[in-house]
Amino acid sequence: MIPPRYDERDLADVAPAAAVRAHAEGKARSVLAEAEGRPVLGVDTAVVVDARVYGKPSDEDEAREMLAALAGRAHDVISGLCLLGPDVEVVEHATTRVEFRPLTARHIEAYLATGEWESRAGAYAIQGRGAWLVSRIEGDYLNVVGLPVALLAGLLDVHFPGVYDFGSANAAGPGATPYT
């Protein structure tokens, strides 16, 4: 993995889906030269409720505000994905609907104490203790974790058929028998 060298600034007056696609593309392009002809993947995720975009909180107070805003409500997790490589340049996004349980101040403080909120869009990590915050999900769970795998699998199948799929010996590993 090559860490991106991309300044992820807020994009004023840009729809959330367009913003995460732009950030994903910026991240991918920032490392493309170092990839030496290999495919590059850039991803960016945001949480959206009532047209307000929640990225990564800057501190615990901002995380508290985000969790309080999401408590007992549904929100969208939108991830932009950019796949660049020889003969491929695709920028897409995926949306997953997540509903939070009603949360008390005690619940929020207990979750903040875990530290999981740090560097997480919307101030939670569904793959950890943050799963307790969630009452319902519609769509790709892994998108909420931070990588829209359902979208990625489809793109890889279209743009790299036989290389990154279940029918490929390359995907199964050296010496493995591909699925038929």
Q: If you had to describe this structure to a student in words, what would you say it looks like?
A:
32% of the residues lie in helices and 24% in strands. By secondary structure, it is an alpha+beta fold. The protein has a single domain, classed as Alpha-Beta Complex (Maf protein), CATH 3.90.950. Strands 2-1-3-4-5 form a five-stranded antiparallel β-sheet. Helix 2 crosses helix 3. The protein is globular, with a radius of gyration of 18 Å. The C terminus is likely disordered.
Explain briefly what this protein structure is:
Strands 2-1-3-4-5 form a five-stranded antiparallel β-sheet. It contains six helices and five strands; from the N terminus they run αββαββαβααα.
